[in-house]
User: Which sequence fits this backbone?
């Protein structure tokens, strides 16, 4: 199972039996709207606070994923997930409702793939038959915790990113139909000394590049093996930096299509999002909604999803600490006979 | 500050930060200045119009009209904040919407709305000055020092 230094190969091929995505109104206006299961018209979701609304997002996504997998929640052994809120309250409070044995994890915006990698490892090793993996973020609750009040009039620089309101969840199982999780690479924390919380892309790009290179080194394959390599939420600025770093390291990324989830979910011309999207929900809804749909249609056979996370807290950047970042990669392949 | 940080960074970090800086999209300085001028100026024109209205129709003199004028501007800003318009206007206007009294009102109203969910006392009461607090503190400190300077150069007497 362990391959190379920091990667896992899942020889028992855990299956993503079902996935579900729930998003807010702003995401529903973007180009990927048709790939999401539920689009809410009100970002409060008729709740009393942003935090409660965020909890409902992940609750709904989890319940829908379980339903789509054709199982009951009693059949799910474990729930692995996390989010951006302090003490990961959104996921933990949703876990209170779901009452599935729960492992809370925090990897900031990399939580989507961190939870999927862990779920796959546990299922692959026989520790569980079904695992629910998921994450969520809410634009307003993230703004409130990390930046300014949502209605405060401050001008965002062109490097700023817009936190996605959305949740994505998946059911990983030992058997069944669906895309399989082939391998995963766990990233290390990289800190290049970027201190600007309005430039997360630049902070996270080196972590993404490090994990991607580690993946190919560990598995001894070339980027061309995948039809698509996609990073989580580097957005325009981070994406460009990552491309430059690949070039500098002589890494043949050109063998495949390289994209970023943070650049897919919004329309740059009509939606005011500066550099692009970010947040736990970003890579989760793009992967579980858009990309898996493309895979089911047969447009993608193999892809590597590299979710990126900035491990800062509102306190750490006020104390002028730099932004440590991490990235976790998960390789997903179309089910059935791959040659 | 920036130099200190650079000294602590390893050569690899320094090289990366240079690269990141190169690829960072620049803030559109000229456009920001122009918009700030337009937006800030327009708010002041509105303020002047309100003041003139108080002078002409209510019969205040200019000095008496200034307080109700500010109150009206604050009211407009708070209403726009509550309607969710002010933050979108501010992204366009930048400093133009932050500097006048409307920006100050927005900072307090937005914090109050945001933290309403934590209750009236600890939420609204406690967090309302989250952004406005520093402005008041350092505004008062600055006024104190300006007062001292005035005192030293002009003395207390005369009243001029």
Assistant:
């Amino acid at each position: 199972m362990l391959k190379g230094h920091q990667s896992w190969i899942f020889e028992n091929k855990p299956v993503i039996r079902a996935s579900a995505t729930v998003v807010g109104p702003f995401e529903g206006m973007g180009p990927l709207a048709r790939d999401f299961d539920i689009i809410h018209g009100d970002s409060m979701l008729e709740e009393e606070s942003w935090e409660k609304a965020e909890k409902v997002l992940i609750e709904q996504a989890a319940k829908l994923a379980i339903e789509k997998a054709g199982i009951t929640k009693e059949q799910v052994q474990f729930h692995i997930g996390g989010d951006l809120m302090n003490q990961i309250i959104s996921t933990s409070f949703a876990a209170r409702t779901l009452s599935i044995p729960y492992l809370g994890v925090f990897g900031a915006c990399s939580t989507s793939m961190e939870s999927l990698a862990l779920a796959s490892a546990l299922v692959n090793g026989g520790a569980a038959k079904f695992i629910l993996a998921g994450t969520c973020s809410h634009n307003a609750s993230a703004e409130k915790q990390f930046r300014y009040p949502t209605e405060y009039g401050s001008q965002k620089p062109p490097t700023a990113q817009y936190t996605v309101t959305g949740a994505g969840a998946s059911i990983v199982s030992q058997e069944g139909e669906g895309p399989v999780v082939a391998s995963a690479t766990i990233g290390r924390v990289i800190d290049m000394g970027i201190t600007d919380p309005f430039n997360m892309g630049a902070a996270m790009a080196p972590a993404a590049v490090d994990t991607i290179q580690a993946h190919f080194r560990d598995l001894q394959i070339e980027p061309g093996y995948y039809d698509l390599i996609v990073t989580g939420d580097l957005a325009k600025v981070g994406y460009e930096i990552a491309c430059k770093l690949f070039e500098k390291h002589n890494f043949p990324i050109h063998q495949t299509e390289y994209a970023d989830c943070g650049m897919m979910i919004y329309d740059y011309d009509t939606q005011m999002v500066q550099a692009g999207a970010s947040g736990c929900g970003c890579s989760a809804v793009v992967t579980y909604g858009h990309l898996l749909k493309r895979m089911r249609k047969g447009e993608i056979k193999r892809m590597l999803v590299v979710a990126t996370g900035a491990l800062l807290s509102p306190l750490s950047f006020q104390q002028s600490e730099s932004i440590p970042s991490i990235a976790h990669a998960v390789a997903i392949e179309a089910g059935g006979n791959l040659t | 500050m920036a130099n200190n940080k650079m000294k602590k960074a390893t050569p690899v970090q320094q090289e990366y930060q240079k690269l990141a800086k190169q690829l960072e999209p620049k803030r559109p300085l000229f456009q920001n200045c122009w918009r700030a001028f337009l937006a800030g100026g327009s708010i002041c024109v509105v303020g002047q119009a309100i003041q003139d209205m108080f002078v002409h129709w209510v019969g205040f003199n200019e000095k008496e009209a200034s307080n109700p004028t500010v109150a009206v501007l604050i009211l407009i800003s708070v209403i726009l904040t509550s309607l969710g318009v002010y933050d979108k206007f501010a992204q366009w206007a930048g400093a133009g919407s932050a500097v006048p009294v409307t920006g100050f009102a927005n900072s307090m109203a937005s914090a109050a709305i945001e933290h309403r969910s934590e209750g009236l006392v600890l939420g609204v009461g406690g967090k309302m000055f989250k952004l406005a607090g520093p402005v008041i503190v350092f505004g008062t400190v600055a006024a104190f020092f300006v007062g001292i300077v005035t005192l030293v150069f002009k003395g207390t007497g005369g009243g001029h």
User: Anything to note?
Assistant: DSSP finds nine helices and no strands in chain B. Chain B touches chain A through 42 residues (CB under 8 Å). Residues 18 and 121 of chain B are 47 Å apart (CA to CA).
